[in-house]
Amino acid sequence: MKHTKSLLFFIKNQRIYLISFFVSTLFILGIIWLDGYRNSWLLVYAVVLNIIMSLVFLLVTFYRQRSLYRVLQNERKKVPFEVIQEDESRLSKQVFKQMNQQYTNYHEEISIHKDSLADHQTFMYQWVHQMKTPIAVLELMAEGNHLEKNSVLEETDRLKEGLDLALNMARLESFNQDFVINQVDLKKVVTKVINEQKRNLIRHQIYPKITINEDLKIESDEKWLSFCLTQILLNSVKYTELEETRLFIEVEETRDVINLTVTDFGMGITQEDLPKIFQPFFTGKRGRKSREATGMGLYLVKKALDKLDHDITITSVVGEGTVVKISFDK
């Protein structure tokens, strides 16, 4: 029979009820007998009637929950859990609702992981392709015995930037285990980032001007904030024309917010590209002109700042420059 296995499973599941029923029946009969009542036929009739009523109750309960027990008894691949909604039982409907929600959540998580894996694979493909360029340049210089110090350092800097980007993309996957919110000296962090990029800045003849009060503290993670500022600085340098030397890093304070702005005077971003700059792998019109563009820098910056609960906005005018603003709550 179609429901034989599920019926047996239902009976097993009701064994505590059945045992309690028989024990309580015997207990009641014993009390009645000890009380002096000796009409055995009436007692038998009462017991049989009680058994019939209990069996009817169990059968009705099973019938109303039959699909639920089919799912519980059989393997998932044999009986889809959607059949539970055919039951009339409130318990079955609640179980179906919970299972359906878990099933939906599971598929959403799988979809997120698939998208993340696809992004990771695409990034790695682009990253490996990007890393080939400085390696090829170094090989050419080595073969021609033209290993000039500045040229070698420029190519190794590109390798380092690519490695740092790949490392931080991997670290973002486990962000919750890799950040600590502390009081951070904002000027100290900005100065440290600029010093780390000093060689790159000098190479492009860009001289940043910092306007930040001493000992200005914000609530953030220093390591991730440094990564975000580094990516913003690299973008500013990468897309600034050779004759332009200005780069302003300033702080504006309001009653509730501290705004850190990085202003460059480079080629700027088109209004068409501006809404898409935080999308993964988006390089835009200016990015297509650069062999180093991966379209992942600002995407990772946005993800990291979102996790740190900091806001970032970017405004730009083509031919005039770009302003990046990071806002910290006081």
Q: What key attributes describe this structure?
A:
single chain; 330 residues; alpha+beta; Heat Shock Protein 90; 2 domains; five-stranded mixed sheet; two-stranded antiparallel sheet; 7 strands; 14% strand
Give the topology, please.
Blueprint: H1 4-13, H2 15-34, H3 40-64, H4 66-73, H5 90-143, H6 149-172, E1 182-185, H7 186-196, H8 198-203, E2 207-211, E3 217-220, H9 222-238, E4 246-253, E5 257-264, H10 284-287, H11 297-307, E6 311-317, E7 321-329
Parallel strand pairs: 2-4
Antiparallel strand pairs: 1-3, 4-5, 5-7, 6-7
Helix pairs in contact: 1-4, 5-6, 6-11, 7-9, 9-11
EC number: 2.7.13.3
Domain Histidine kinase: 126-330
Protein name: histidine kinase
Oligomer: single chain
Name the poorly predicted regions: none
Residues in helices, as a percent range: 55-70%
Structure classification: alpha+beta
Q: What is the CATH architecture descriptor of the largest domain?
A: 2-Layer Sandwich
**Order of strands side by side in the largest beta sheet?**
2-4-5-7-6
User: Could you say which overall geometry the principal axes of the C-alpha atoms support?
Assistant: elongated
Q: What's the mean pLDDT score?
A: 83
Description of the structure:
- The chain has 330 residues and is of the alpha+beta class.
- The protein has two domains: 4-88, no CATH class; 179-330, Heat Shock Protein 90 (2-Layer Sandwich), CATH 3.30.565.10.
- It has helices at residues 4-13, 15-34, 40-64, 66-73, 90-143, 149-172, 186-196, 198-203, 222-238, 284-287, 297-307, and strands spanning 182-185, 207-211, 217-220, 246-253, 257-264, 311-317, 321-329.
- A hairpin with a 3-residue loop joins strand 6 and strand 7.
- The longest helix has 54 residues, at 90-143.
- It starts with a helix and ends with a strand.
- It is an enzyme of class 2 (transferase).
